[in-house]
Amino acid sequence: MSELDQLLESRGTSAQLGAYVTAACFSSQDQAAFALGDGTLRLGNEFEQVMAHDGAVLSLAAHPLGGFCSGGDDGRLMHITDCAVEISKFGAKWVEQLAVFSGKSPLLAVGVGKTVHLFAAAGEKLREMAHPSTVTGIVFDAKGKRLAASHYNGASLWFTGSSAAPRMLEWKGSHTGIAMHPEGTALVTTMQENSLHGWTLPEGKHMRMSGYPAKSESLGFTKSGRWLATAGAESVVLWPFFGGGPMGKAPTELGMGDGIVRRIACHPAHEVVAAGFDTGLTLLINVANEQIIPLCGPGRGAITALAWSATGSQLALGTETGFASLIDFTGQ
């Protein structure tokens, strides 16, 4: 056993699932789910198999009413518990983007081609939101009142309870993913050009964050909103969203590894970030005191999925070779 695998071996429950792990998340009851390229979901500590799609599972989220919802390259949106039930079908179009709001009036948003379809939790379609190009990322604000979508040449910001046209946030180029500040004061997208772009809200002032050696495929704000954690470099790049930042402020870089960070996951309660590299190395980073703890050594394939449970007591990780693990931090 490598020294880097000590926590994986002592606190992890692991399995080889036999297919590319496309996503991971936890239900509201803290049950884990791993989405695979073979069309299945694997649930819980026993990695119980549920057939979800005829083709790869492309998107995954916790369903507000329990269980999970998933989208696939078979054009279907599914509700997964111990079986799979179709919520909607979109023909031959891939269901690549999925976002959920689990508040008082829960919502599902699904990105299919150029359109975002908004559903009530029970499955009733509420509206369709058309965009000028393919939607590459969607996110709700903390209250479920606004939904933002990234696409070519910028992002669109919608009010979920209104039929009004969206606010267009423009910046030339290919925007490939999106995150919103916990307080709704900023919107940030990843770019094809190894950079990030952002807008302050409501002002709409531009924020440009560049210097990455690779495309950033994963980003998220820490619990406090003080830091934006991003992949795409040899360490986690943290942009300060305090003291007038990030413009005019240098980012902090923590957790230097042996490759490029592919996935990040911010802890739901603390200023802690999990980082997964293209070598399989996974690190736990305490931003406050800059402590770095290895979770998983390299050699199992690039990290392609990384997610915390709602309480932060468990971390799910998956790789391109089908390795998956649940690490339990109870008592830490």
Structure description:
The structure is a single chain. The protein has 332 residues and is mainly β. It has one helix at 6-11; strands at 12-16, 21-26, 32-36, 40-43, 48-51, 57-62, 68-72, 76-80, 84-89, 97-101, 107-112, 115-120, 125-130, 137-140, 146-159, 167-180, 186-191, 196-200, 206-209, 219-221, 227-230, 236-240, 252-254, 261-266, 272-277, 282-286, 291-296, 303-308, 314-319, 323-328. The longest helix is centred in the N-terminal third of the chain and has 6 residues, at 6-11. It starts with 5 loop residues before the first helix and ends with a strand. It is built from one helix and 30 strands. A hairpin with a 2-residue loop joins strand 11 and strand 12 (115-120). It has three domains: 19-101 and 113-124; 131-210, Thrombin, subunit H (Beta Barrel); 213-316.
